[in-house]
């Protein structure tokens, strides 16, 4: 098929390998050059980078999230596709399984005890006594639920609209949120960032989690989007006993500012938005296939609904 011109506009990633892989089939530029551009591949692109691009047919996100694209006030009216890949899903499943098991098996307590040379075994419930609640049962959420179930955890799921899943107790909508939280010991957040979900992880929501449990308190794990959470509320919840511990991979501002108290809080585990890293070796071929589909006149996959925000 004919070579096309791609604008690669990324922040936070080294574009070198992406450019090398995409250039095997198409011509890639990293800055608008006044010539026609057929496709844009972006991650947190500078606002305005897509303005007035002649010939633009579609925009592809380098990751599962697209809020960074939708936030551009000058966004062209062309289809937007997000990445859905086994590689990304597997990374997220590994991360969430690691964090759930670490909290379940008292990882923070043991690390603190080791630092102080304390030989003490805390109470250890079995997985069947613990409920993991997943906010968001899209591809990532369902894959994580499928990993938690064989470990013996009780698994709940909450979505805006009904999304039943075998083996999972599901809740939906505002009416189901209270019951979902009340039945959850470890909260896993995998929602997309939309106007409806911005700031949803606040003190009022965290207060709804089940604190009287075999873990000795409620746990928060956010691997979704940073703007879902209010970090001041999370810190308040940790101080007043609403939360026992938290693992956070995403933040309201990234990189997480050096002065943030989350860095040094003894009951917070911080990772640098690395739960499901976009690997160009695995993902660039998916984008090339999307372009090939478009050239063949076939529909693009994993298109974003702009009204829904994902």
From TrEMBL:
<dbReference type="InterPro" id="IPR006140">
    <property type="entry name" value="D-isomer_DH_NAD-bd"/>
</dbReference>
<keyword id="KW-0560">Oxidoreductase</keyword>
<feature type="domain" description="D-isomer specific 2-hydroxyacid dehydrogenase NAD-binding">
    <location>
        <begin position="100"/>
        <end position="275"/>
    </location>
</feature>
<dbReference type="Pfam" id="PF02826">
    <property type="entry name" value="2-Hacid_dh_C"/>
</dbReference>
<protein>
    <submittedName>
        <fullName>Glyoxylate/hydroxypyruvate reductase A</fullName>
    </submittedName>
</protein>
<dbReference type="InterPro" id="IPR036291">
    <property type="entry name" value="NAD(P)-bd_dom_sf"/>
</dbReference>
<keyword id="KW-0520">NAD</keyword>
